[in-house]
Amino acid sequence: MEQRTYNQYCATARTLDLVGERWTLLLIRELLTGPKRFSDLQAGLRGLGTGLLAARLKHLEREGLARKITLPPPARTPAYALTEAGEELGPPILGLARWGLKWAMGEPRETDTFHAGWAVLGLKACFDAEAAAGLRAVYEFRIDDEVFHARVDDGTVEVLHGPAQHPDATVTISEAAFLDVTSRGLSFAEAVKTGAASASGDRGALRRLAGLFRLPAPRSRDITD
Amino acid sequence: MEQRTYNQYCATARTLDLVGERWTLLLIRELLTGPKRFSDLQAGLRGLGTGLLAARLKHLEREGLARKITLPPPARTPAYALTEAGEELGPPILGLARWGLKWAMGEPRETDTFHAGWAVLGLKACFDAEAAAGLRAVYEFRIDDEVFHARVDDGTVEVLHGPAQHPDATVTISEAAFLDVTSRGLSFAEAVKTGAASASGDRGALRRLAGLFRLPAPRSRDITD
DNA sequence: CGGCATCCATTTTGATACTG
DNA sequence: CAGTATCAAAATGGATGCCG
User: Fold this and answer.
1) CATH of A11-88, one of 1.10.10.10, 3.40.50.2000, 2.60.120.10, 3.20.20.330
2) Class of domain A116-209
3) Which of residues 60-99 of B touch strand C (CB under 7 A)?
4) Is the pLDDT of residue A97 over 70?
5) What is this structure's pTM?
6) Could you check: is the Cβ of residue B54 within 7 Å of any atom of nucleic acid strand C?
């Protein structure tokens, strides 16, 4: 099957030739926090059938954006990881996320799914390099049964699925409260008060945590323009 | 027609619900350099029929990303412009373009179309704010029969289709040479030597021009990863 | 020129069943 | 669990005709 293309010698169009098809950018989003197995990818993408998922993964492999790996022991199960080229789609994808946080979030709909990893990426999208100047710390986030960690190092941040080796601080929070904090402006302190969250570890690192992310104020797209 | 959605409470997915359909981001790209008429939009998007273009424009209007305007006299003809929300998709789109410049450009194919405006946006995508610190200048680019201008003001740049009011400097260049300069690393000085380009106006502004844009070194996505 | 409507051939997708 | 195979529904592309 011939691959469909916009036939434009334009950097945007060429990029969309590669990743503009339905599901593709969300698939890459899933991989931005680390390798994932076929079934975990599908679980994160309700509505994407196994056939299309397999086709998309093959496409990403063929185009050098992802590769099939074998997870290290004791798992030894197949999984998919981004290549360097794929990883570098992180910034543009987080750019789209930043736009969405400002202009498109609204309230969750009845039919919406939600995964903690998406909110974690949303946080990363709002990371403020200046606010992190001079800070070096590893945070672990335990959100219901999912665990993520963020490694902050002087203006940079790396966010991965799974536990940290040596976290400086650990935050435990319910998924619902995490959603409130990351997308509805609930302060973490309030979440602690209600018992939905708790924190432990280095108090200096914890004190700086909230200031590392600058959530945009949501705006309406209505015709006030 | 029911609008298709990913049904995810995720900023990236919500954004793609709005602009992830085929042609939509390229349509917005066309509008990033200023309002355009229906037929000019179609000319920039070969393969997009009038029906789908009309549908996409309606969708963007309904969603508050674009609006239909009437061009000022003497034109008085209808055109489409981005709203504030639409304009703010510029940075993510230029992020995708930056990725494409690095990982996906290669050589033009026989079947590729090309428009100077795309290369101008590519330039903007590579604008280096630090290099423009303290500079305030308006450049006009005359590329074959298309005219653009860039207004640089201390670390910011604005790029628009059409002539400038009071350009500090004007660059005249053939489309082919502009393509060589913006995507194949040909230096502007060399283009002048071959007679494909010429420049006039404030010499100080011209001297700084080339340094304002940091083109990424193209990379292959092959399995060296 | 600036669109909308219609018809039709192709692709893409979504959903499900099935296999190693 | 990791996919293939299959089929129906939806989106797209291209042509064409219409109308102000």
Assistant:
1) 1.10.10.10
2) alpha beta
3) 68, 77-80
4) yes
5) 0.96
6) yes
